[in-house]
User: Fold these one by one.
Assistant:
Number 1:
Amino acid sequence: MKNLYSLLFIFLIISFITACTLERQLPGTWQIASYSEEGVTGRSTSATNVGTIEFDSDGTGTNDLEFKIFGSKQTDQREFTYDIGDNYITIKPQQENDSSSVKSWIVMENKRNSQKWKSTDDEGNVQTIELKKED
């Protein structure tokens, strides 16, 4: 039982450190180096140099995106708020009627100049995003 408590304590400490590190490293402008989606039907797509996303230290941000997914051109420019958890980030559009665009991402890789996040949608498709910090 003592080993179980020790492992739980270590896990909580690592989770806390990860969240603190992400909060410290995230503010700034990030280039979306790549975006990919693996569909549950086997269909997949990817895009590179999708645009930028800026995180301010007060929990707000903006994005400026332009990309093609499944052959369809998409643009997205909006303001958002974000919350950081133990190993995830949730991005919420600031428009009150836009709750369908709330998205949580699992932080797979958290480095000072690069991030890798994964998420799923309502249909089970898996999205992966790779960010590179701009100088």
Note: Confidence is low (pLDDT under 50) at residues 11-19.
Number 2:
Amino acid sequence: MITLRNLSLQRGTKILFNQINITINAGQKVGFIGANGCGKSSLFALLHQQLHQDEGDVELPPHLTIAHVAQETPAVSTLAIEYVLDGDQELREIEADLVAAQQAGDGMREASLHAQFEAIDGYTARTRAAQLLHGLGFTVTEKPVNQFSGGWRMRLNLARALMCRSDLLLLDEPTNHLDLDAVLWFEQWLKRYPGTLLLISHDREFLDNVVESIAHIEQQQINLYTGNYEAFERQRATKLALQQAAYQKQQREVAHIHSFVARQRWSYCPAPLQSLFIRAFTEGLHNPARRI
């Protein structure tokens, strides 16, 4: 479970979040939407501990493994499939320990490491990495990273993030460099992903096919809606209609109060007292439509 409690975040002079409270359950798939600059990417940076909140708490489960897509790819000569395999840090650590144990002739240590390797499906890792690359449109897996163009390097970063056996996957516009076939494959992969998925995307169809909740960021708050993007739009339209109706009703009540005061011709009542009378009625009225 991920909980943001009374959280506030400011970047420069701009307040992004003001005392927000939201809980995301383990295994939940949530799409984050909102106007550009509302704080979606900053929220992800906060969860990945690249930023720190100004107030409040970020509560994450202990030993949570977080995967995200790097925005830059170094021009390294590492082969594509090896670069993707590097996304599973524990796998690489066990492989290095195995080499050390073999060189030291430590049979017991080597046997223990082989058991750990099997427990994390290490023997299928290369096959799984190749499947990720194939699904994302790669036809070769032994080509050096520095021989791919920028768009294909971003796909490598995505494959590397998917290779990580994560509990929480943070994806910020992950379909930007994907063609249709890759997007369709990616949708199916995300549906099978067992961890918690937090996704930023402007692709409504992609959101509809992947997420089960929508987190809408507006006016420094986050409102969580159940269902995909299409369901969010229906709920949002209903909410706005109710707010508009409430606002119009309030305006009629205010107009009625002003009309009542004018009809009374309170010559005996000073103008300041008339203003107090009107304020006493209007200040108690809610004005939800102004928060649209």
Note: The radius of gyration is 27 Å.
